[in-house]
Amino acid sequence: MTKHLISSADLSRAEVEDILETAASMHDLQRREVKKVPTLRGRTIINFFFEDSTRTRSSFEIAGKWMSADTINLSAKGSSTSKGESLRDTAMTVDAMAVDALVIRHNASGACHQVAQWVRCSVINAGDGTHEHPTQALLDAYTLRTRLGDLDGKHVVIVGDLTHSRVFRSNVITLKTLGARVTVVAPPTLMPSGIGAWSAADGFATSWDLDPVLDGEGEHGPVDAVMMLRVQRERMSGGYFPTAREYTVGYGLTRDRLERLVARNDDVLVLHPGPMNRGLEIAPEAADSPQSVVLDQVSAGVAVRMAVLYHLLAGEETPAPVPAATAATAATAATAATAATAPSEGAVR
Ligand code: CP
């Protein structure tokens, strides 16, 4: 695996599968009483979130802490960014403190790629503008594989605000990497320009019409999972649809649509990356249905982020030597912790 995780395209199929297998052993750890392994002891991870987040920020922090890394959270407000410091100066300042990884969420597409050019440490993209959110795609793949098994040939339908969705962009890449069949559905105003050439090159289908896709009409075929996307009003500067009601009627996963899906396949899965606009892109009956794996996605987020941190950071030299006495104590504790809580042989160092 490369030093950074900026795009889902950075990962080969073998690398995605490796991460998902590691995540499975990390998920076992999540179910134990003592959720701590010494894997990343001595590593320092900074979670720098220039945009709001609940799931990604807290799961990266939990992931780091459970692997015994020192994790520090920074946000734009409360950092020198609010005094006008540039992204470059902020990134280089934090990097100069000999941290091992910067987990970055930023509202500018390409920000993480740019930071990776300026710093020595690993950079993990926790969502950059409308570009990508690779760890979200990995946790979605983990959730799907847990329920559906191998994703080769499985049909995943992604619905909603494609134009502004980094989740969609990363998911198309990861799902295609794993051999899934993907159809994306959006109103014409929320379908990215140039998607025709992109979908032809990468082998996914597009549609403006949700019901024939969900009903599996013609070449669409049966649906294994539906991923509803959040309508990102904060990124919209104009009127992308006339009213919320019309959006729901055309593109929402309503109770009626869920019932029709379940009538065709009662094992169908409903995903949403969160946060959800209940009543807009997804009805509460769908969000809380037995088919919904929304909270499974959240749970997988911790395991998958542990796996990503493990693959990027474990095995590198510990950045600062630990004083001898502390080292001996820590080594004893680490040995005990490894014996008591190691998720699997290969996953803990
Ligand atoms: N899915 C996702 O990125 O959620 P947060 O914005 O809460 O991190």
Concise description?
This protein is an alpha/beta fold.
What does this protein look like?
- Strand 1 (44-49), helix 2 and strand 2 form a beta-alpha-beta unit.
- Helix content is 42%, strand content 13%.
- It is built from 13 helices and nine strands.
- It has helices at 13-30, 55-66, 87-95, 111-118, 134-148, 166-177, 195-202, 210-214, 244-251, 255-264, 284-287, 294-313, 324-341; strands spanning 44-49, 70-75, 101-106, 122-128, 155-159, 181-185, 205-207, 225-228, 269-271.
- The longest helix is centred in the last third of the chain and has 20 residues, at 294-313.
- It is α/β, with parallel strands linked by helices and 349 residues long.
- Helix 1 packs across helix 12 (294-313) and helix 5 crosses helix 12.
- Phosphoric acid mono(formamide)ester is lined by residues 53-56, 127, 133, 136, 273-275.
Question: Helices and strands in order, then pairings?
Answer:
Layout: H1 13-30, E1 44-49, H2 55-66, E2 70-75, H3 87-95, E3 101-106, H4 111-118, E4 122-128, H5 134-148, E5 155-159, H6 166-177, E6 181-185, H7 195-202, E7 205-207, H8 210-214, E8 225-228, H9 244-251, H10 255-264, E9 269-271, H11 284-287, H12 294-313, H13 324-341
Parallel strand pairs: 1-2, 1-3, 3-4, 5-6, 5-8, 6-7, 8-9
Bound molecules: phosphoric acid mono(formamide)ester (CP).
Phosphoric acid mono(formamide)ester (CP) binds at residues 53-56, 127, 133, 136, 273-275.
